[in-house]
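Narrative of activities, Objective 1.

The group set out to show that a structural description can be obtained from nothing but a protein's sequence at a throughput compatible with the screening campaign. Below is one input-output pair from the validation batch, recorded exactly as produced.
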Amino acid sequence: MKMKWTGVIPAMTTAFNPDYSVNHAFIDRHAQWLIQNGCSGIVALGSLGESATLRFDEKVAILKTLVTTLGNQAPVVAGIAALSTMEAVELAQAAESVGCSGLMVLPPYVYTSDWREMKSHLQPVLRATKLSCMLYNNPVSYKTDFLPAQIAELAAAHDNLHAVKESSADIRRVTALKALLGERLKLFVGVDDLIVEGARAGATGWIAGLVNAFPKESVALYQHAMRGETKAANELYKWFLPLLRMDTVNKFVQLIKLVQQEVGMGHERVRAPRCVLAGAERQAALATLKIALLKRPKVKI
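Output recorded for this entry:
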């Protein structure tokens, strides 16, 4: 289906069975639940999806499951990240072949490069398919920062670059990109605890993490922010922020999966080298969640 870069699009977690194989049955159910609760698409194989621990064949199989599950209900976006440019190109082509609607293109794993090298990596991936593409900028995690002028250069050269997931956590990036590009690219907030500020600065979408466990609340918060409903947005944001901040720390995968487990929508299993949370940090996360659930607001979308 045609890609529409708008709304709340979950960076979906990858569910594992007790033997740590991919749990396709749960991925099917989880995706349906997210869309039924107001999300406008699914991003698979991102950082939150533990892409770095998945084999190539597992990635393709996950994309097939999601495309089959969602059909014409909502678009599936494939996260494209690899150790090499060659593998990234091959994954982009595989995503197109199984019916994905878009790509979210990441910098390569491990190697931190300069702009010349980054451009030489991105361009073959963007040219590999006709799919609509989103650039993922996350200098905190990947140590590579796509500056607004560099993003504008890519947009001028590639007609199928349609969106940016901006995860620098610098709200000025949204206004800088708007100043340079106007409406040429759709701008998405890529960190959970900046959605209200991002919307006020001109962002049009949200690639979200805690949405994996709280889709109704995430969609309601996004809608309030986009409509300029300041009081409603601020009230819901105040409740949600302790949870949303779990998306912006090193163990965000473990935290979000733990929250999913506790609300009955998933399991905390993660693939090594990650380990499930233990000790004081686990108890702190559970305490935060307990307070949030006790005060959980009723929302309508």
